[in-house]
């Protein structure tokens, strides 16, 4: 009986059929990047806001004040009397009633005594010039509640982490395309609920669930693409990363055109419903079907692939070799039971963690420096395009392992040099070296997706990729806390930590087997035989 790779070669390893499926699934990268980075625009600073004095709303209505006039009567006297207060997180400890004068509401306290009035902290009584522009103004995430914005992103990453375990397992058990479609449906439904959440608790719950399903769409589409192309074409996995970058570049345009956070949330969530149409055009992975003893279905799909590619399968292909390995419910022990699998798993987990932590840390450190948020965010995404192009140029000529290791080491060295370059003398050089570090870690981040997929057998591939990539989400949760806490001690200290992590990662990944031009392993025994 022929092997799957022999049948795939005859049916076409990257013909018209695979190109169509590949292009369709690449769109998932765009929508996933929307979810990944949306907090930047959903949580934009609301601009001018202040704490309203009790009774001010009724008085403002009676006196016919505009918001600006109300602000002048409440905040300006506070600033004149107490120069250290901005009127955003505290207010004068007074209350206005019907006896207060419209012309001079603070007259009863005397012109010179405003500074002696006691101050009170503000609780749920803020006024915003643009009340629905962001989740900050919608749910009062200001002053003592400001940390809740960081919580919303941490909850999303926790959703990614949960999705990696639960939906990664489900895709290996119940099929790639089924879990992909259910995840797309989940992202869309949860996204709509998030947009109309009546309170911040509901917002967090469904943002968490959107993270769970979002990770399901991203990981499963990546595995489907990798499993239906030949070993020489698996670099298409890198191209999916380019679509993620395109999403990062498109997002500021969406946010610029839509003035409210609910509108942005709907715009980035609703496209997921379109992916449900893939039920009719994207087949189940034939590799997965073979591992579940469904050879007839796999062969039917292979005949369909050959037909669309203008090829013809030989009549004697009545059956395809099925993995002799018993299919069982995958667990972490399956990934560490044998020596080569154990080495691969531990190194890949560390590589995912480091890539995410250093990548997000450098993005936040370089930041979006003043100016136009939308333009700066677009440029920060454009910096990532050369990384994917460099990978496409080198990875099939040199292999996976060397670019993987070098990109990490370059990122580490760039972080170390940046830490000790003086800002005042040559700021352009410091920015250039820091950008080189960003380029290096972006390359490493994109290569780890490809290498992770190629180092696990079909029976454990989705589970293995999901489990290892869950360390990426852990890195994403830790990165902001690590960056800002260490920066309080010394501004450049985070770069030293990033440097150590990246260089160690660069050395470790050189211990992984080279997978250039090798068929995807079908069993654990195949992985153990990789040199």
TrEMBL record:
The chain crosses the membrane at residues 21-42, 154-171, 178-198, 204-225, 237-258, 264-282, 347-368, 374-395, 402-421, 433-451, 463-483, 489-512. GO terms for biological process: dopamine transport; histamine transport; monoatomic ion transport; norepinephrine transport; serotonin transport. It is a multi-pass membrane protein. GO terms for cellular component: apical plasma membrane; basolateral plasma membrane; mitochondrial membrane; nuclear outer membrane. InterPro entries: MFS_dom, MFS_sugar_transport-like, MFS_trans_sf, Orgcat_transp/SVOP, Sugar_transporter_CS. Coiled coil: none annotated. Residues 96-517 form the Major facilitator superfamily (MFS) profile domain. GO terms for molecular function: monoamine transmembrane transporter activity; neurotransmitter transmembrane transporter activity; quaternary ammonium group transmembrane transporter activity. SUPFAM superfamilies: MFS general substrate transporter (SSF103473). It catalyses: tyramine(in) = tyramine(out); agmatine(out) = agmatine(in); (R)-noradrenaline(out) = (R)-noradrenaline(in); serotonin(out) = serotonin(in). It is found in: Apical cell membrane; Basolateral cell membrane; Mitochondrion membrane; Nucleus outer membrane. Keywords: Cell membrane, Glycoprotein, Ion transport, Membrane, Mitochondrion, Nucleus, Transmembrane, Transmembrane helix, Transport. NCBIfam families: 2A0119 (TIGR00898). Belongs to the major facilitator (TC 2.A.1) superfamily. Organic cation transporter (TC 2.A.1.19) family. This is Solute carrier family 22 member 3.
């Amino acid at each position: 009986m022929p092997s799957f790779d022999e049948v795939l070669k005859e049916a076409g390893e990257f013909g018209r059929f695979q190109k169509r499926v590949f292009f369709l699934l690449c769109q998932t990268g765009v929508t996933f990047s929307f979810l990944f980075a949306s907090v930047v625009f959903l949580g934009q600073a609301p601009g001018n806001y202040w704490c309203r004095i009790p009774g001010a709303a009724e008085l403002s209505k009676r006196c016919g004040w505009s918001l600006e006039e109300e602000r002048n009567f409440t905040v300006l006297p506070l600033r004149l009397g107490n120069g250290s207060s901005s009127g955003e997180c505290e207010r004068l400890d007074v209350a206005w009633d019907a006896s207060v004068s419209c012309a001079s509401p603070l007259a009863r306290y005397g012109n010179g005594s405003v500074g002696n009035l006691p101050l009170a902290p503000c609780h749920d009584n803020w006024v915003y010039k643009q009340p629905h522009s962001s989740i900050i103004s919608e749910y009062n995430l200001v002053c003592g509640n400001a940390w809740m914005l960081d919580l919303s992103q941490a909850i999303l990453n926790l959703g990614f982490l949960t999705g990696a375990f639960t939906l990664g397992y489900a895709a290996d058990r119940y099929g790639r395309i089924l879990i992909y479609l259910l995840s797309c449906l989940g992202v869309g439904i949860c996204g709509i609920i998030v947009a109309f959440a009546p309170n911040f608790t509901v917002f967090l719950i469904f943002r968490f669930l959107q993270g769970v399903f979002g990770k399901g769409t991203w990981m499963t589409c990546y595995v489907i693409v990798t499993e239906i192309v030949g070993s020489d074409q698996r670099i298409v996995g890198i191209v999916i990363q380019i679509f993620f970058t395109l999403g990062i570049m498109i997002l500021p345009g969406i946010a610029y055109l839509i003035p409210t956070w609910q509108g942005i949330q709907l715009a980035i969530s609703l496209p997921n419903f379109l992916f449900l149409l893939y039920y009719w055009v994207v087949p189940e992975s034939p590799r997965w079907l073979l591992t579940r003893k469904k050879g007839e279905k796999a062969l039917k799909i292979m005949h369909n692939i050959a037909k669309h590619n203008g090829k013809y399968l030989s009549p004697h292909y009545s059956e395809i070799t099925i993995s002799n390995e018993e299919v069982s419910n995958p667990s972490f022990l399956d990934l560490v039971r044998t020596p080569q699998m154990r080495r691969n798993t531990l190194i890949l987990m560390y590589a995912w963690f480091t890539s995410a932590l250093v990548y997000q840390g450098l993005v936040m450190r370089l930041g979006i420096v003043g100016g136009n948020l939308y333009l700066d965010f677009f440029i920060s995404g454009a910096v990532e395009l050369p990384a994917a192009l460099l990978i496409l140029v080198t990875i099939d000529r040199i292999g996976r392992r060397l670019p993987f290791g070098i990109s990490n080491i370059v990122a580490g060295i760039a972080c170390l040099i940046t830490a000790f370059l003086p800002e005042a003398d040559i700021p352009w050089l410091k920015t250039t070296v820091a950008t080189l570090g960003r380029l290096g870690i972006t390359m490493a981040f994109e290569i780890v997706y490809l290498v992770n997929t190629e180092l696990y057998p079909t029976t454990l591939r989705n589970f293995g990729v999901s489990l290892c990539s869950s360390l990426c989400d852990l890195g994403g949760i830790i990165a902001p806390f690590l960056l800002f806490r260490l920066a309080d001690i010394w501004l450049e200290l985070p770069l030293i930590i990033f440097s150590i992590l990246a260089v160690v990662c660069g050395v470790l990944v050189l211990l992984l087997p080279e997978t250039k031009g090798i068929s995807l392993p079908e069993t654990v025994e195949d992985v153990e035989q990789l040199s």
